[in-house]
TrEMBL record:
Alphabetized SUPFAM superfamilies for the sequence: LexA/Signal peptidase
Name of the protein: Signal peptidase I
Stored PANTHER family: CHLOROPLAST PROCESSING PEPTIDASE (PTHR43390:SF1), SIGNAL PEPTIDASE I (PTHR43390)
GO molecular function: serine-type endopeptidase activity; signal peptidase activity
Lineage of origin: Bacteria, Pseudomonadati, Pseudomonadota, Alphaproteobacteria, Rhodobacterales
Species this protein is from: Rhodovulum adriaticum (Rhodopseudomonas adriatica)
Amino acid sequence: MASKGDKQESGLWETVKTVFWALLIAGVFRTVFFQPFWIPSGSMKDTLLIGDFLFVNKMAYGYSRYSCPFGLCPFDGRILASDPERGDVVVFRHPVNNSDFIKRLVGLPGDTVQMRDGVLHINGAAVQMEPAGAFAETYRKQGPMGYYPQCENAPVGEGGTCTKSRHIETLPGGRSHAVLNIRDGFFSDNTPVFTVPEGHYFVMGDNRDNSQDSRYARANGGVGFVPAENLIGRADRIMFSSAGRSLFFVWTWRGDRFFKAVE
């Protein structure tokens, strides 16, 4: 007959094994299939809002060392690689600061990309832009960092309505999405011509005047061109969205964003 001490030791060992296998399965799921991602900033409004919670499809582009937590996958380049498409909303590892960023991929290898008077030009041609009213939100602190939104109709008092002009942008190939404008003549509205190198991509935020992206050199806090190896996956669908300071404040969840497709 087992002693009380033996039973306690056996129970502790079973708990350890259960936790180990749970962590292993979670780690494999996160590495191979889907990675959770919470939107921390407003650079992708109104496609993605601060507090949106989504899973990143890691099967979409294959796997690189950045597919593993902390960049620990033991290989270079990509395996089972697939090319992203223009217009995809992608999550990638920042080439310098090692953070995960989310932006829209607008430039493919060999493309030229330029902003002229707030209009995106790809390979010398302006993309189609159609007015789509205004994006409105309440002027108050958003998310755990407590950022205030930037407003085209500034100044706006606490609790007032903050608006930004919205257009529907159609990229070469036919993919369409909303983009926002905060101010005209901002330095991000007019850029040099960028030629995307082989093995790299050009990304931008949909909230065009409030996004550190490929328009900005890494030395200036931007992203620069994103190496293919740094792609982690594609954002396909929002699972739920919290308008409060924490995902766990369920009373602040946005009822119209459950399982919303990312377009």
